Amino acid sequence: MNKFKYYFIVLVTTISFFSCSKDNPAEIVPLREYSIQYTTDIATIEEYLKSYYITVTNRPGFNDDQDVVFTKIPTGGNQRSMWSYLNATSFPKLLSRDVNFHGITYKIYYLVLREGTGEKPSNVDGVLAAYRGDYLTQVAATTTTAAELRVTQFEESKFPQSFFSLLNTITGWGEIFPQFRKGTYTTNADGTISYSNFGAGVMFLPSGLAYFASGSGSIPSYSPLVFSFKLYEIQRADQDGDGIPSYLEDLNGDGYMYDFRNKVSYPITPTVNPDDTDGDGFPNHLDVDDDGDNFTTRLELTYKDSNGLNQLYTFDNIPDCSGNTTNSQRIKKHLDKNCK
Ligand SMILES: [Ca+2]
Ligand SMILES: [Ca+2]
Ligand SMILES: [Ca+2]
Ligand SMILES: [Ca+2]
């Protein structure tokens, strides 16, 4: 009898132990497959695009210029869905961009309300942007409620004070902001700044290009995100500190620079990095010696000859500002810009 009692206690203890572990927050849950989550996310995003319409404030010079309100199309409503602007020839336009990441091809939809009139950031520059962020959730049906695509605002920044590096924020920002231009601004008598002609849009990001499993703040795991934004100003970066701003180290001039050494994220085509002159794996914006001649780019740009003139090394065969042939398109671009 005592023996039976002992076994019973052990059994109860064991059941309790496993019951506790089920709810233990420290329990490790395997990450979802990026490709599977993407399939779910893109379906949610397309449903949102097809079932909501936008109302855009058009008040140049005022803070609410290009503010966007998203509203669900009521049953029988005849409002134009966001989806109806797909590949439109006038603004707003709903466009998409394919992004190779995590070994899959993501499609990012983005609405262009206005392109902007100034310079574009590259995907490694900084941006000063007003924005509003929403996350999308598919809420399952219950016995009393129907299934619902829920939209929840998690953040709004109307008067940005600091730049975000597109290299360090979520991947989706770095992919979409280079499609827009900054505008112009004036400082008012009271010290406030009025922005005009800036690029404005909305991006629809699968969770794999946002916070994925980790979530962030009030954003749940695996949430597709929607950001409406206004690009007020950009900040050029020089990641390798060679004196050439990174956007001028973008050899193929597409506005994007990647570090393909991380094969987990970029097992992609093209396998040859178009922005890596010497092919050593370090793209030019991260390479202190772009052409691999063992002389740093900074030295090549700052060397002074016997006459004290700021010349490049003659062995590099790079000419002066007259625009002669050079063995480095990148440095030529730099000279072109600085010789105007
Ligand atoms: Ca640089
Ligand atoms: Ca590029
Ligand atoms: Ca290189
Ligand atoms: Ca060099």
Automatic annotation (TrEMBL):
Gene3D superfamilies: 3.10.50.40, TSP type-3 repeat. InterPro entries: PPIase_dom_sf, TSP_type-3_rpt. Transmembrane segments: none annotated. This is FKBP-type peptidylprolyl isomerase. It comes from Flavobacterium ammonificans.
